[in-house]
Design brief:
Layout lengths: L2 H7 L3 H20 L4 H8 L3 H4 L1 H23 L2 H21 L3 H29 L2 H32 L4 H20 L13 H24 L4 H23 L13 H31 L4 H29 L1 H19 L8 H16 L2 H10 L6 H45 L2 H5 L1 H38 L21 H7 L1
């Protein structure tokens, strides 16, 4: 019996649990610091542009290293990769906790990111190798806990900690978990993934860094700095040209750093397209809703985090269930149902007003999260199932990279739409108000200030609603694509229509 069959018969749950914990705390840190940025600005006396680099820099390091993870996973053992990544992450976390200056804190975040970047592709690749196709849905559903719940829990945990303790406590909480995961990994972790003696192509690494790093930076700054900023469009142009150069170079190489030929597999290509479209739409809830709750309705950051907590819990609870449903019914049925729920709830968010209750928002967001939990992981897993095992590292690296880039694009797109329509609405409302206001009100400073605040809130609400409406149509595009999904069988081939609902038990018998 081969090693692969042995792993499939008895997957190494203990080792996967170690990777799971490590990946969870690493991904949690990506959003953990967002609510704490104002406190850090005050302590280190830095402006908003500088402090934003604590999140932008973290994201850029991820964008640069995740594409290279395909090379790392093929070249080094999963044990050595995990221990190296977890050591870097732990050192960065400790350094961040005790950082005496802002420069040290920024460097610590970069060290953290260099460790966390490899964790998600590594965990996903190990799970693909350890589980057969007919049981992979349940396994990847559990993996969805890391991908979805960790980033969603970040703002809630951060809001509670910052409200009661110093921002340094955010790192102090993570340190013991990271150290425990590292120590257990040293004694218990073994190697599962096959290695190949491949050499890194330095020029490919440079192109990847400038390409994905440039795109991430450009789109992440477009929402705040505007599309006419030279650094914004310059970064996007450099990034796009570098990615084109990277693709052309990889297609000419026998041993590419990142294999773009995997897009010849139709279901993987389709899953990537749906994931990109859905990631752009998904960010409408993660970005626009906190703006509405805090800026327009006046709720605290803690309340904004609590608003999203039930949604995160729903996604966490549904991930394993969705995985088992995927094993039985496939990605198409789940994807269509989940996208319909997502579209309907996103449309309802485009009807926000000043009166809707906090509880109603929480329930609506939780239902939206329920719909999205049925889409992302099943569709992604179905696409990865079509790839040969040797291409798993490239598939996982590609998916994680595209999620980062499409998330940045979604953020920039939706914030730009919101700002543009808010500005246009504010000008129109101001003209109407001035035309209808009597002379006594115009001379009152308090009256003018109240009117201006009211107009700005109304205008921003209009912009948020319009952005949610655009997000609804983006999700409809994902739904249209979902109708073309075909189920991939245990042999990596697309199954015939009559066998699309074949259960895992019948697959095992037929094999």
């Amino acid at each position: 019996m081969s090693q692969e069959n042995t792993m499939h018969n008895k997957p190494p749950y203990g080792m996967i649990a170690i990777l799971f914990i490590g990946a969870f705390v690493a991904i949690l840190n990506e959003t953990l610091l967002n609510v704490a940025l104002p406190s850090i600005m005050t302590e280190f006396k830095v402006d908003a542009t500088a402090v934003q680099w604590l999140t932008t820099g973290y994201m850029l390091i991820n964008g640069i290293l995740i594409p290279a993870s395909a090379f790392f996973i093929q070249r080094f053992t999963n044990r050595s990769l995990f221990l190296t990544a977890m050591t870097l992450f732990t050192v960065g976390t400790i350094l961040a906790s005790i950082s005496p200056t802002f420069g040290v804190l920024l460097a610590a975040r970069m060290i953290q990111a260099s460790g966390s970047a490899v964790m998600m592709p590594l965990l996903m690749n190990v799970m693909l190798v350890a589980f057969p196709v007919e049981k992979r849905g349940a396994a990847m559903g559990t993996f969805g806990l890391v991908m979805v719940v960790a980033p969603a829990l970040g703002p809630t945990l951060s809001g509670w900690v910052v409200e009661h303790y110093s921002w340094r406590m955010l790192f102090n909480i993570v340190i013991p978990i990271a150290i425990l995961s590292l120590v257990i990994g040293i004694f218990k972790l073994k190697n599962l993934t096959p290695q190949r003696a491949i050499k890194v192509d330095i020029f490919s690494l440079i192109l990847s860094s400038f390409g994905f790093g440039g795109l991430l930076y450009g789109f992440s700054k477009a929402g705040s700095d505007g599309w006419t900023n030279p650094f914004v469009y310059g970064s996007i142009i450099i990034g796009a040209l570098s990615v084109i150069g990277l693709i052309l170079r990889q297609l000419r190489m026998d041993e590419p750093m990142l294999e773009f030929r995997i897009y010849k597999y139709s279901m993987f290509a389709l899953s990537s397209a749906i994931s990109i479209v859905l990631a752009i739409a998904m960010f409408s809830g993660m970005i626009l809703l906190p703006i509405y709750v805090q800026t327009i309705r006046g709720f605290s950051p803690m309340d904004a985090g609590l608003l999203m907590l039930p949604g995160a819990l729903v996604m966490g609870l549904m991930s394993p269930i969705t995985g088992r449903l995927f094993d039985k019914y496939g990605a198409k049925t789940l994807g269509i149902i989940g996208l319909i729920i997502t579209i309907v709830t996103t449309f309802y968010f485009s009807k926000l007003d000043m009166e809707i209750s906090f509880t109603s928002l929480m329930v609506l967001f939780a239902i939206r999260s329920f719909g999205m939990s049925m889409v992302m992981m099943p569709i992604m897993t179905n696409g990865l199932n079509q790839l040969p095992q040797k291409d798993y590292p490239h598939g996982t690296a590609m998916n994680n990279t595209l999620q980062q880039v499409s998330g940045a694009i979604g953020s920039a797109l939706l914030i730009t739409i919101m700002n543009k329509h808010s500005k246009a609405e504010a000008e129109e409302l101001m003209q109407d108000a001035m035309a209808n206001m009597d002379s006594s009100a115009m001379t009152s400073k308090q009256g003018m200030a109240e009117m201006k605040t009211h107009i700005l809130n109304e205008a921003m609400l209009h912009g948020i609603n319009f952005s949610f409406l655009v997000s609804t149509f983006i999700a409809i595009l994902a739904l249209i694509l979902a109708f073309f999904i075909r189920r991939v069988g245990p042999d990596g081939k697309i199954m015939k229509k009559g066998k699309s609902n074949m259960s895992s038990e019948s697959v095992t018998v037929s094999d």
